[in-house]
Amino acid sequence: MQENTLYFERVNHWALQMIDFVKQINSEMDEERITVLERLNKLEKLTNDTTYPNMRLIQEMEEEMKKIQRNVELLCCGKQKPFRSRIPIGEHSLPSLPYDYNALEPYISTEIMKLHHTKHHQSYVDGLNNAEIKLKEAREIGDFTLIKHWERELAFHGSGHYLHCIFWEVMSPKGSKIPKGSLLKQIEMDFSSFTAFKKHFTEAANQVEGVGWALLVWSPRSHRLEILQSEKHQLFTQWDTIPLLVLDVWEHAYYLQYKNNRKDYVNKWWNVVNWKNVEDRFNKAVNIKWKSF
Ligand SMILES: [Fe+2]
Questions:
Q1: How far is the centre of ligand 1, averaged over its atoms, from the C-alpha of 208 (Å)?
Q2: How far is the CA of 288 from the centre of ligand 1 (A)?
Q3: 138 and 205 share a domain?
Q4: Domain limits for position 21
Q5: C-alpha 163 – ligand 1 centre gap (Å)
Q6: Are residues 162 and 101 in the same domain?
Q7: Residue 224 maps to which CATH number?
Q8: pLDDT for res 53
Q9: Integer Cα distance of 157 and 130 in angstroms
């Protein structure tokens, strides 16, 4: 108990020092600086009260301190804009690769990397920007006759852009053979071993029918890792997004009452939306911030 109290005091001291340090960093990333300061202030307040220090809280604090440390490093290095704020409609851009085109030789050739990045990924970026602009125009003039087409384009190019952003980052010329730390522990918990996971993922990738992706995903619902195949990423989601408000328009959701009048069902449905719940989901979702492009 005495030790835990001492630990709290040390973390409190660390948080106070970091607050001073972050305030002095010369960085243009004001939003990120505010977020880091908020987290540090929270940690400082938490460790001010040493009445009930316990092991679980200490572990959580360790994790939080590591995250803060990483964010402070990014603030200091300033070259990257890890949490660039909101991308305006139609202004996505092609991220530069975190390594040279020849860096993944001999496993992936320079020619493939150049073509893949500058042609294929660029075309997803262009397509996504175009779809967003067209949908904005549709909202402005209130004409949704082509909505199915543009929603498909939004999903196809959006998934293409977001998944490639992840793809470039999850590769490195200094790749390691096996993960470490908390990810390895979770893989072993969810797939029994890293070998079993690797075999499953490999088979999923080998057996994607036609074009697509193999993905390791985290499910916030089941608190587990899962392996998925995305045969055609345009059908019909934007991978890397988080659902907030969903409306079931399968017939089982309305047919008994509304028969084939889906429009009536959709109109009436707006009376029962629990916006408080949607807001809660939103507030949790906005805490996840990837580098934006
Ligand atoms: Fe690709």
A1: 14
A2: 24
A3: no
A4: 2-77
A5: 8
A6: yes
A7: 3.55.40.20
A8: 64
A9: 9
Distance from Cα 108 to the centre of ligand 1, integer Å: 13
Query: Phi/psi class of residue 277: alpha, beta or left (left: φ > 0; alpha: ψ in -120 to 50)?
Result: alpha
Burial readout 162-194 (b: 16 or more C-beta within 10 A, e: otherwise): bbbbeebeebeeeeeeeeeeeeeebbeebbeee
Does residue 186 surpass a pLDDT of 80? yes
Cross-strand bridge partners of residue 240: none
Q: How far is the CA of 156 from the centre of ligand 1 (A)?
A: 12
Alpha helix ranges (H) inside 170-274 = 181-191, 194-206, 255-258, 262-269
pLDDT recorded at residue 73: 77
CATH number at residue 146: 1.10.287.990
Distance from residue 115's CA to the centre of ligand 1 (Å): 10
**Would you tell me the crossing angle of helices 55-77 and 2-24 to the nearest 10 degrees?**
20
Mean pLDDT of 99-121: 93
Residue 250 CA to ligand 1 center (angstroms) comes to 32
- Cis, bond preceding 236 (omega within 30 deg of 0): yes
Domain edge (last residue) among 175, 200, 229: 175
Q: Per-residue pLDDT averaged across 152-178, rounded?
A: 90
Query: Do 98 and 170 have their domain in common?
Result: yes
246 within some domain: no
Q: How far is the centre of ligand 1, averaged over its atoms, from the C-alpha of 168 (Å)?
A: 10
Mean pLDDT value of segment 131-154:
95
Cα–ligand 1 centroid distance for 202 (angstroms) = 17
Distance of CA 106 to the CA centre of its chain: 30
Q: Are residues 204 and 183 in the same domain?
A: yes
pTM over 0.70: no
Q: What is the pLDDT of residue 28?
A: 61
**Closest alpha carbon to 233 in 120, 145, 82, 95:** 120
CA of 116 to the centre of ligand 1 (A): 6
